[in-house]
Amino acid sequence: MSSSKKILIIGGGIAGLSAALWCRRLGLSPLIIEQAPQLGGQLHQIYLPLVDYPGFKGTASELLQALLSQMSEQEIDYQLEQKIERIDYKNNVAFTEKETLTYSALIMATGNRKRELPQFKPFLGSHVHMTATGVMEQLKDQHVAIIGGGDGAFENALLLAPSARKVSILMRSEQPRARQHFVEQAQQVKNINLHCQQQVQFFRDEPEFMGLQLAHSVTGEQQKFACEQVIIKCGYTPAQELLPDPLLLALLLPKGC
Ligand SMILES: Cc1cc2nc3c(=O)[nH]c(=O)nc-3n(C[C@H](O)[C@H](O)[C@H](O)COP(=O)(O)OP(=O)(O)OC[C@H]3O[C@@H](n4cnc5c(N)ncnc54)[C@H](O)[C@@H]3O)c2cc1C
What we know:
FAD/NAD(P)-binding domain
């Protein structure tokens, strides 16, 4: 099965794992580099059963276990806790903090990440969370503000409403962007409140966490907004820092691509 063609796969999520399996099938030598302490990527963030993954019914951890056993059957190499920091595309070399890795071909499977709001960092884990699932017990009987007006925000609000004291959805836009049936359901739940055209600016500056500072998206009018917990649901952003700039990419790609 060994081949001199070393394929470097950056990212050990489901995309990286499936790319590695396919490379192996082609008789190539894939090596997965993953920055996290375990393979699986976003599969570790899914706490509810997978309902719409084609051809599979079960939990994300069951899916991951199946993938990992395929990986070990195929003896696919991987390295954990290694972040690719930089790539020299001209010479086919990738750099981690400690290692220099040469490759014949590179597969970028770096996925995406939740959009964070930097000003919330000091409170991550204590008063601020990226999702409700996984911290349901901590949010019980609390007033939870959810920032965002999309599916994720409404889904989390509906999930939280039975156990939270109050759920407030804060969105910048005039109307929610979430699916209509999520919005209709939320409008019927007594302890869910929608606040449109509200932009979250920063925390009220008491030493203890007390809530948020809001500004009206159109008038700029400011108000203090008391709440105990916050969930950020502002969508995803692609992890694309390692991609070459478009000019270099045009030079690197074979003609006709
Ligand atoms: C809560 C939730 C529920 C979901 N539910 C469903 C569902 O029901 N059905 C469905 O089909 N999909 C669902 N998804 C989406 C699905 O999980 C993702 O589309 C999929 O896991 C993405 O896989 P990926 O390999 O592309 O990226 P990721 O899983 O994001 O993996 C990318 C990996 O690359 C690593 N990486 C990034 N940069 C570097 C670097 N520089 N060096 C080394 N490693 C790096 C990251 O650490 C990460 O492990 C859900 C996602 C979430 C978060």
